[in-house]
Amino acid sequence: MARYTGPKRRLSRREGIPLFAKDTKALERKGAVPPGQHGAKMRRRLSEYGLQLREKQKMKRIYGILERQFGRYFKQASKIKGSTGLALLELLETRLDNVVYRLGFSKSRAEARQLVSHGHIKLDGKKVTIPSLNVREGQTIALFSRLSDNTQVKKSLEDSQTLPGWLERKATVGKVLRYPQREEMEQSIDEQLIVEYYSR
Q1: What is the dihedral of CA 110, 164, 104, 170, to 10 degrees?
Q2: Which of 25, 136, 159, 169 has the largest CB neighbor count within 10 A?
Q3: How far apart are CA 61 and CA 185, in angstroms?
Q4: Quick one: average pLDDT of 28-35?
Q5: pLDDT in tens, 135-177
Q6: Is residue 33 a contact partner of residue 39, using CB atoms and an 8 Å limit?
Q7: Among candidates 77, 86, 57, 62, which has minimal Cα distance to 191?
């Protein structure tokens, strides 16, 4: 199972937004200066292609996906009727690891991915270990009871913000009520730029 294991804060600095939970303070301290030796000097205006590329990279990094898998998601989204950009966002939002994160079982998508791959999550009562699995309308997602006393999970559940309208949660059991609307998905992404990038 491939995933990015390099330094994470530099990714946030490259995109100019906190991609990971702990990066907010670091970005405030250093500003949105790109990483690297010449980061502070690199203030060139981005071309149209550059803007599209940055948006694609940002989306990949937010959801923790590598290049080849992201390309497959785009190909899948382009076969769905309607807006390709919205279909792509919906596919990524309904990934099991993202749903676990949105339900407040974890503080980050990386932590949610670990919960799934280590076998701590049940989907419709069955243990699953595939973070990229797409969750459908009406399915239930639950933590194994052995994890209900876990300090980290307890803290995540206490600190979790208001749930998006397409999900509901009672204790350590969540349910997908419907598919998400655009305003309930990631707001920092302009999906049209990604469609333009792949349409070159």
Answers
A1: -140
A2: 169
A3: 15
A4: 61
A5: 999 999 998 888 777 788 888 887 777 788 899 988 889 999 9
A6: yes
A7: 86
- Each residue's pLDDT tens digit, 33-52: 666 655 555 566 778 998 89
Domains for the chain: give ranges and CATH numbers.
9-91+187-198 (1.10.1050.10), 95-179 (3.10.290.10)
Which 3 state secondary structure label does DSSP give 196? helix
8-state DSSP, 158 = H
Could you tell me if 110 and 64 are in contact, meaning their C-beta atoms sit under 8 angstroms apart? yes
**Per DSSP, what are the bridge partners of residue 143?**
121
| Cβ-based neighbour number of residue 200 at 10 Å | 7
- Residue 65, CA distances (Å) to 41, 68, 140, 144 in order: 29, 9, 24, 26
Structure tokens belonging to residue 180: 């998400």
pLDDT band of residue 89 (cuts 50, 70, 90) is very high
